[in-house]
Design goal:
12 helices; Flag_bb_rod_N; 5-stranded mixed sheet; two-stranded antiparallel ribbon; 3 domains; Flg_bb/hook_C_dom; cilium; cell projection; elongated; alpha+beta
Length: about 575
């Protein structure tokens, strides 16, 4: 084909090429602020030329748009997702550690450290006038303030731990929802690609979901044919088929479920209650299984992580993908808990461990105070011999109508920061506070006829506990008065342990460690944010829309369009000469 009509077709192809380029540029400009959008480029190529026999050779036939591609760097995507997972972990930890600092509220006038100081100060004042009911009332009220603070702090720790667990449950739902959306987009993308088109906007939507998903845990994206992907976590925790999204739509895939409760059974096994896909809106999603050989440490890890691998319906599965039926008894090694090493799920899991440690340290303070004060107050090494304990287990202690403690109800060894309380029998009658040297020989101080009213030996001994060295760090659920607060021969003083520490020192060490942890977490967040911003800037320089660049392109394509239109107009004039000129 040659002649003016061939030239006309060349001009027409140029018009189409310029118009399509303007369309792509307009699409870029309109999506300049669209989250996750990657700029696109129209790739123009020459049309196939034709050969004129006996002439100059091949003659060009114009241009066409071969493809519209999005500008994306897969290596930067990989970096962004890896670092987003790390930031998700650090950010979660920093947020919760900041809340823990707020709960402890140290140093402050209302903090536990200050209240402990006021508690011992009140005993010091009582030792000056042991017969004074006013001073005794101050001791009782300062004790009440201290126990209330310990109770409230423990409850707030407990609530924060439950909040972290709730966040895991919400994350499981969001993760499964995102995976379903990614799976649907994956199938759409492959369908469009098979038809010969380029699904750029669909791929942007899928990549945006992948970027957001990576904040929960580190992901691996394997590219398949027709722009399909397989998606799995970096940490597969022994799963043979760990894919969460598969390009092969006919294959089974995995999802996650949420552990709501773990209960120890009388035979030593553990009943695990979980909700398929994390959906707690209906009891039909509630499933159970029995673990027959789990250790306490394994159960603690399971309680902190709370995420199980499941099939596409959320039913718990073993490593080989076999379904665990509702109510089945299995070995712990057969259970597959999802334990990522980065991301917000890891942050939530690790912060629960931290909260558990702070609760344990708070319990140690409560036990140390209760055991040592009770030991000196009564002069009894064995709690069973103490007829009038100063501190009691407020959760179990009961009283008769005369506000007298039922001794059998007071489980002193189970005192924690959650339940420590002043004996209401003492609170209602402060004259029952024991302050004298030989009060240990009588059930009530009013029965003591050996010592004078101004005898203050026992009050002084309790006041001096402020500086006593106690092995608080060794306290556990088996600790008793005898192990933590051994009395000397006078039954007045707790023996110092050179390997121990003071109550105030132990608590301040706890606060200091928290401060260091919080500072480190914030520093990690700042550093990781800076690193991620730097990578995102690099990504934006490649994939982001520059309005200046697009406006320059728009002018360029506008001129190209006008020039091709001029070609067509010129050919039209030439044809007019040929057609109409022949009539003359």
């Amino acid at each position: 084909m040659s002649g003016l009509f061939a030239t006309l077709n060349i001009g027409k192809s140029g018009l189409y090429t310029a118009q399509k380029s303007i369309d792509v540029t307009s699409h870029n400009i309109s999506n300049a602020n669209t989250e996750g959008y990657s700029k696109q480029r129209a790739n123009a190529v020459t049309n196939a030329p034709y050969t004129v026999v006996g002439s100059a050779g091949q003659v060009g036939t114009g241009s066409q748009i071969q493809s519209i591609e999005r500008i994306r760097d897969s290596f930067l995507d990989y970096q962004v997702r890896n670092q987003t997972a790390v930031l998700g972990q650090y950010d979660t930890r920093s947020s919760y550690l900041s809340q823990i600092e707020g709960i402890l509220n140290e140093p402050s006038d209302t903090g536990i450290s200050t209240l402990m100081g006021k508690f011992f100060d009140s005993w010091q004042e009582l030792s000056k006038q042991p017969q004074s009911s006013n001073n005794r009332t101050v001791v009782a009220q300062q004790t009440l303030a201290l126990t209330d603070a310990l109770n409230n702090t423990y409850r707030r720790f407990d609530d924060l731990q439950k909040d972290a667990q709730s966040m895991i449950q919400n994350s499981v739902i969001d993760i499964n929802s995102s995976l379903d959306q990614i799976n649907e987009l994956n199938q759409e993308i492959m369908s469009v690609k098979v038809s010969g088109n380029q699904p750029n906007d669909l791929m942007d939507k899928r990549d945006l979901l992948l970027d957001k998903l990576s904040s929960n845990f580190n992901i691996v994206v394997d590219k398949k044919n027709f722009e399909g992907i397989d998606l799995r976590p970096t940490d597969t925790t022994g799963m043979i088929s760990p894919n969460l999204v598969q390009a092969d739509g006919n294959s089974d895939y995995t999802r996650f479920s949420y552990i709501n409760n773990i209960e120890k059974q009388s035979d030593g096994s553990y009943k695990v209650t979980y909700y398929a896909l994390g959906n707690m809106a209906s009891d039909k999603n509630k499933k159970t299984l029995i673990l027959e050989d789990a250790t306490e440490d394994q159960i603690n890890q399971l309680q902190q992580g709370r995420v199980l691998w499941g099939d596409k319906n959320g039913i718990a599965i073993k490593g080989d993908g076999a379904e665990i039926n509702d109510g089945d008894t299995i070995k712990f090694s057969q259970l597959r808990a999802f334990t990522p090493q980065s991301g917000s799920l890891k942050g939530n899991s690790s912060i629960q461990e931290d909260i558990g440690k702070y609760k344990e340290q708070l319990n140690n303070v409560a036990k140390a105070i209760a055991f040592t004060v009770n030991a000196i107050h009564s002069g009894k090494q064995d709690a069973a011999d103490d007829k009038l304990p100063f501190f009691v287990n407020g959760k179990t202690a009961t009283y008769n109508d005369a506000s007298e403690l039922d001794l059998s109800s007071n489980n002193e060894n189970e005192i924690t920061a959650e339940n420590i309380s002043i004996n209401k029998e003492i609170l209602s009658d402060v004259m029952k506070i024991k302050t004298k040297t030989h009060d240990d020989q009588y059930d009530l101080p009013s029965q003591n006829t050996q010592d004078g009213d101004k005898d203050n030996a026992r009050a002084v001994a309790i006041a001096q506990l402020r500086n006593g060295l106690i092995k608080i760090q060794n306290i556990d659920s088996t600790s008793t008065r005898a192990t933590i607060a051994p009395l000397d021969s006078s039954n007045l003083n707790v023996k110092n342990d050179i390997n121990g520490t003071t109550l105030d020192g132990y608590f301040k060490d706890t606060v200091d460690r928290l401060g260091i942890q919080a500072q480190e977490a914030k520093r990690n967040v700042d550093n990781q944010t800076y690193l991620l911003d730097d990578i995102n800037n690099s990504k934006e320089s490649v994939s982001g829309v520059s309005l200046d660049e697009e406006m320059a392109n728009l002018v360029q394509f506008q001129h190209a369009y006008g020039a091709n239109a001029k070609v067509i107009s010129t050919v039209d004039q030439l044809l007019d000469v040929v057609v109409n000129g022949l009539k003359k």
